[in-house]
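COMPLEX REQUEST
Ligand: 1-deoxymannojirimycin
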Amino acid sequence: MTTPALLPLSGRRIPTLSPGASSFPHHRATLRLSEKFILLLILSAFITLCFGAFFFLPDNSKHKRFDLGLEDVLIPHIDTPKEGKHASGQVIIHGQGGHDEHRHREEEESLRDKIRADHERALQEAKEKLRKSREELKAEIQTEKNKVMEDLKKKDVGPKPLPPVPMPKVVGVSDGEPPEPDVKEKRDKIREMMKHAWDSYRQYGWGHNELKPIAKKGHSTNIFGSSQLGATIVDAVDTLYIMGLHEEFKDGQEWIEQNLDFSVNAEVSVFEVNIRFIGGLLAAYYLSGQEVFKLKAVQLAEKLLPAFNTPTGIPWAMVNLKSGVGRNWGWASAGSSILAEFGTLHMEFVHLTYLTGNPAYYQKVMHIRKLLAKMDRPNGLYPNYLNPRTGRWGQRMLLLKTSCYILLFWVFIFSEMLTLPIRAFAAIERHLVRKSNGGLTFIGEWKNGHLERKMGHLACFAGGMFALGADGSPDDKAGHYLQLGAEIAHTCHESYDRTVLKLGPEAFKFDSGLEAVAVRQNEKYYILRPEVIETYWYMWRFTHDPKYRQWGWEAVQAIDKYCRVSGGFSGVKDVYSSNPTYDDVQQSFFLAETLKYLYLLFSSDDLLPLENWVFNTEAHPLPVLHLGNITLPGSEPAQR
Ligand code: DMJ
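STATUS: Structure written out below.
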């Protein structure tokens, strides 16, 4: 079929297409992306020209004046230097007839010249652009963007200086060198592992959130949105400081000073950014006394505050750092907020109020507590999902993850509320703690009225929690909770010991004859998590039983043997396989937590004593604030 010829507006005929050739409309539909891009560019240059020409057209009102041939026009008094003043107080504009017309023609001519020149220049620019490759164009756009960013930064006068606050008495920032040479040797090994992890990240992933140690390049996950916030640097600097890796610490500090900028269009997890970034920065501040860490923590906290703008004041799980718009994960019980997340902001936010004098942080988290206190508690425990719009519980599910760190906070910071964690401990024990047929104590997961006999690696932190809680419990309970902590530590060690790699699986079961063993393939991985080692360390501090150091050393050897690669440390996909594959991620918490707890396990107790320091859920140590002696802005006086 022959396509009819098309007659464009110009009147010139477009030649009729030969049979078999594609018709014009069809051809248009199959234009390649690059052709579309060029057409778009030409079109936009043309529109710009028309638009520019419109603005350069002579002013119509001027025409009118000349066309009317006004000689002398009387207009109300306006003080202008050029015109002469009439005795009546009116201004006389002297008409100049033919002379003005001549001048006007000249003006019009010069305008036309200008339009022609602009036209030429725009065409020239468009031609040059078309000659450039896509990559060159992209690079040009990026340079322009950077310039705008730089200009904006220059205009930014910077944050307001913070009020001077007395530094709490910081004790125990000592070297912590153990007296026994063999222990020191082990500690040196852990320090060397930290150096390998850091140096690899420094070389291959610097400024990215995390590292891909096999591919040897940067890595990130959705918890950091589309940002490049150097999560590993911020998460690791306090560990570097504690280990005495001063050069590396300085390097990290410099990067934070010069590059850490939170004005980015990225949707981040409020919980993760709080525990890793605010926690990491505050710890680095308290340990080193360097103001920059405090300033950055406060800048970031400001960006998180809009997350609390919900009908109930229960924060969204995610917030866009630039727009302040928050939302929840779709998978979290129809868009609920997660207790383990919003319950883990307290420690950092109280410190923020303490350091800034701004009551907002303290009030936001206290509001959460008051709201929770009024809510029903099935089985005496809070379910994991809460809808921030309605203030109602979502799916009834009890998981012992990070949420319980809120309890540690209460134990240390609000000692007057000691009954609360003790009540929660009792409820956890009654509803979640069970013994396996083989005699292993484990913490199950309660879902919709049923207790699943499965324990997650994450829940292994609870051994340390019970030990720490025991320290502040009434005498008749202290021994019991320390014993419970020891039993959890033992079970978690078993979950490591029953694998081929001697590294723990993500989750392990206790039914159908199984004892602390993973069944499903997607529960057999180890991603360099810290919780088991964390519990070993707490148990070591409270009991000094040498088995905890021995278990910790087993973990060091296994990690060094199976997770170490030339580009850092990687997680493994199956701890039951003698030939495991790597997941190719060096998690930031490996440097923040796993290596820090291992280092502390082989240090003497005078390094960060637990009477003076409380560790957040990402292992960032913050000094204990005795709120009985301090009145925080916005707080009611402590009740005794
Ligand atoms: C860390 O980011 C924190 O410990 C968090 O509380 C839970 N998950 C990881 C480590 O497993």
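REMARKS: Residues 275, 402, 458, 529-530, 589, 593, 617-618 surround 1-deoxymannojirimycin (CB under 6 Å). The two ends are 94 Å apart (CA to CA).
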